[in-house]
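User: Could you go from structure to sequence for me? I need the amino acid at each position, not a summary. Structure tokens:
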């Protein structure tokens, strides 16, 4: 007999009335999209505020126990720390949702299934890039080729900007096929994310050329940039959850339990 799902926080899990399910049972996990999005928004807000305060404390407050460690762990412009990891997980979550939708679209032989798949792959690459800081490694090679400075000081924006334009052009027909609310949500999410990742990176390049890297103005720009990126991806996640609720309402995640011994 199947266990009855009950709502528990962010997911719906199988009832605990049967702590040891039989092999023919399945555990149904259902994400509560609205609650998850609220959790992501709260986490992003905390990381942004703490990161800004950590940088502020290193510049304007007397030294105290753990100050430098806190600033390092929460620095919004850093790599392999809490904000960078959170941003990478956001992108990975968006990739997972896009991939889930793509799988359903392939099963339905939807005409836009390849675009959904391409977007899932793109966000997976962006998650890897965020985690490993791959775009930062392009700055010096590109500067050697085209001698960028000023607004193009962070030269990775040149190849990534060209790629962004190509992706947008490739998705124009796809966007026209989307429901109006989904299209608006995805476009606004894109504006926030690209505006942060590219728009503020251009401003940062100009400011660095004029005043240097280690200024409080630069740290303020980094805070705004990272905030736009985080909120842009969270808006995309919220939009995808809304799309799933409205147009793929029967979608469920099921985990099968197999207790058979592996064959030799």
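Assistant: Here is the amino acid at each position, in order:
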């Amino acid at each position: 007999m199947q266990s009855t799902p009950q709502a528990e926080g962010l997911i719906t899990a199988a009832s605990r009335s049967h702590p040891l399910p039989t092999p023919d049972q399945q555990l149904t996990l259902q994400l509560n999209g609205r609650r998850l999005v609220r959790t992501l928004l709260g986490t992003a807000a905390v990381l942004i505020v703490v990161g800004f305060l950590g940088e502020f404390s290193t510049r304007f407050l007397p030294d105290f126990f753990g100050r430098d460690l806190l600033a390092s762990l929460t620095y919004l412009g850093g790599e392999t720390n809490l904000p960078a990891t959170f941003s990478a997980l956001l992108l990975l979550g968006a990739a997972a949702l896009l991939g889930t939708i793509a799988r359903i679209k392939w099963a339905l032989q939807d005409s836009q299934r390849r675009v959904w798949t391409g977007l899932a792959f793109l966000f997976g690459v962006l998650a890897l890039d965020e985690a490993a800081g791959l775009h930062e490694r392009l700055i010096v090679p590109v500067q050697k080729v085209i001698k960028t400075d000023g607004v193009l000081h962070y030269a990775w924006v040149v190849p990534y900007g060209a790629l962004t334009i190509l992706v947008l052009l490739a998705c124009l027909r796809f966007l026209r096929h989307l429901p109006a609310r989904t299209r608006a949500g995805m476009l606004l999410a894109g504006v926030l994310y690209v505006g942060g990742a590219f728009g503020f990176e251009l401003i940062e390049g100009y400011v660095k050329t004029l005043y240097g890297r280690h200024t409080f103005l630069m740290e303020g720009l980094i805070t705004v940039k990272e905030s736009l990126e985080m909120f842009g991806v969270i808006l995309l996640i919220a939009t995808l959850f809304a799309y799933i609720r409205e147009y793929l309402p029967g979608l469920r995640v099921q985990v099968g339990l197999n207790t058979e011994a592996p064959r030799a």
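One structural detail worth keeping in mind: Confidence is low (pLDDT under 50) at residues 1-18.
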